[in-house]
Structure to design on (220 residues):
């Protein structure tokens, strides 16, 4: 580890169209309008920020925008509760500045992904039920793994810091300046969850943003 360093939209029913069908048409129309106009219905999310939300209908799509630069090394994390069958029910789709689907965080995959934008611009993140038929709460976070992260603090040799994560997707960054050849010990302690398991992990990234070492709940 070395570093020195105004849109109008209308919806109406045909004569005799059931009211339930009309409501569904309105929901789908609004979703389509927001998707077509990037930035119109989006909430900006910044590096180091955690946002929370809740889908109130199965077809709801919550939209977020992230301004990224090509070459950044980022982690995007998504957490949601479980449905009645114990399955995660929320998905996040990330679209590049050209509107092309770029990356996804799916219920069946890991809750976080490491990404490096290839284009500079505004990326759109759509959070929704994978089959547009479920609802619930979620949290979404974005963090950078280079230059000490976003919103972090410096950690000096011999220093002990304490903290608390207030959301499952929250990532707290620390910056440690080191010289090649130094011999260091990094220690991490956390309380236990309701099942008696440690629940905090520390990932150490080198100055190039590559994952170098980790202290995991199941390890020493």
């Amino acid at each position: 580890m070395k570093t020195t360093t105004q849109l109008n939209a209308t919806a109406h029913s045909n004569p005799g169209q059931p009211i339930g069908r009309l409501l569904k048409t309105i929901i789908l129309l609004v979703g389509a309008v927001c998707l077509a106009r990037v930035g119109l219905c989006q909430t900006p999310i910044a590096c180091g920020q955690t946002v929370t939300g809740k889908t109130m209908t199965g077809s709801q799509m919550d939209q977020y925008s992230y301004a990224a630069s090509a070459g950044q090394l980022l982690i995007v994390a998504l957490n949601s509760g479980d449905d009645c069958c114990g399955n995660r029910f929320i998905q996040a789709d990330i679209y590049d500045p050209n509107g092309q689907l770029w990356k996804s965080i799916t219920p069946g995959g890991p809750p976080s992904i490491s990404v490096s934008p290839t284009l500079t611009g505004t990326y759109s993140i759509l959070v929704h039920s994978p089959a547009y038929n479920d609802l619930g709460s979620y949290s979404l976070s974005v963090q950078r793994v280079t230059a000490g992260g976003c919103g972090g603090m410096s950690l000096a040799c011999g220093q002990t810091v304490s903290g608390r994560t207030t959301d499952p997707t929250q990532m707290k960054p620390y910056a440690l300046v080191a010289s090649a050849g130094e011999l260091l010990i990094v220690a991490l302690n956390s309380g236990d969850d309701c099942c008696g398991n440690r629940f905090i992990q520390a990932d150490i990234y080198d100055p190039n943003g590559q994952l170098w070492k980790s202290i995991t709940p199941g390890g020493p």
Notes: The first strand starts at residue 43 and ends at 44. The two ends are 20 Å apart (CA to CA). Residues 1-38 have pLDDT under 50 and may be disordered. DSSP finds one helix and 13 strands in the chain.
